[in-house]
Specification:
With 507 residues, this protein is mostly beta strands. The protein is built from 6 helices and 28 strands. Strands 4, 15, 17, 18, 20, 21, 24 and 25 form an 8-stranded antiparallel β-sheet that branches. It is globular and about 70 Å long.
Length: 507
Amino acid sequence: MEMRRKLGLRTTIGAMVLASGVIIPPQASQADTVNFPYIGMTTQSAISGVVGRDGTAVSGADVVAVAHSNAAAIESTPEGGTLPTLVVAAASTNAVGRFSINVDRTALPSAYIGAGGEVNLELVIADDQKEIRWDTTALPAQYPTPVGGGEELCGPDVTYGCDLGDPVYIVAGTTADQTEPLNVVVATAQGATVIPSWSSAKAQQAGASLPAQLIVDLGTHPTVQDANDNPASWINAPRGPTASSEDEPPPAVMPPVSAEIGAAEVLAAKAVEAAPRSSVFQATADAIQSAGVTTAEITAGRLAAARYPGPNCGYATKILKKYYNQGEVYAPIYNYLGAKATVEQHLGSTHTISVGYKSTASGNYSASGSVSITVSGEAKDTRKGVVNKWLVGGVHVALKASACQNNPTRKLVPYAIGDAILLTSWATHRNFSKQCILYSEQGTYEKSHGRSATVNGAMEILGFSASAQNGFNANAKYTLDISLPGTKICGNGRSVRESSIIDARPA
């Protein structure tokens, strides 16, 4: 356990239970008589995680995954139209609260698979009293990343000093010079080494392919956190005026300097809305039995082949309204006239944006996970001569409602990029000093690697404040044209290459 303490990668549910959430009377819930199989991480695992209640592991908690229609289906469906959904996976937690959701891509109808092979999933997670819902996107793996087979840091055979949610393995990216660690909070099946076929966008920005690792607490104040995206590292985005051109001088009054969000915002970012445990789990279990789906088929991720849409009227959703090109603040460019930037957003660049959810017609939206959407078609863009700006993209958002009568739930779901660079807004330069590179001569520096910074309050729509992130790769990058010798480039991470934010300034 000394290795785990030295790495400083402790991730506990107990640290998250102070976030405000909705408290649900337990007597309003459905009884838990369901027993889905427990599945350790396998090649087909699309999402993994750990479930607790006020910091204590919950054994036998239930998880159902529902696939939603792809962006093309949403775009082609008129306002007032209905889209189907499909139950694609089910699992229960083991004695230490861990679960994995397995999905075989070949079992999915094409309407649920995006242009890049991605699948948008809604998880419904419940103990015997309450349930929460969480959206995420499973992307096809790009990097062969072995998980398991190494030193187990915390698991069934190593329990001393462990806390619920502590990582089982530490996985590093596999690309050149890549040392960014990723936390894996579940054990692999039978402890075998597996190479996941699914990944979160966040992991692939780090040069590894790893399914989203969720830490869920269904206690007094329900919370969900991605083990590899701590809200304490999120930044705010105080934007200045929109720049009409990249040649115009800065405004007389600049916005405040961006900073990491505060403690109250961190707690709010983890909080989720909870509802009484519903009948969906029993209905799903009954449908599995009726269709003759075996445990082996569920473990193999083949539940979607049963074509089960969900109980009653299913999870089918109605498109109430579409909002086009909503402004999404996704990255700051900190530099000066001696190192102007050329910003590129090519086809395949991925943006991950919060989903808004509310269970009552008059309530407020709260975050319910996120979806990852890619730049496609005419959305790509390049801007030259950028100096001290926030990049603002345009995102298409669908307001969805349940197709069931008298169901007041609403969801705000981003589904496509309209303009990859809709506009730029002035940003006040921020200096970093962890790691720096000095250019004594003219030259260029390309920022095309590193995890993204998550921007809090990146998009405002119908009173909902969404977060957003866009990492660096060959499709999403910027190049600094260093025209003045003596330019220093510094980052906020262990190296300039791995940093999520960098700045360029005179030495």
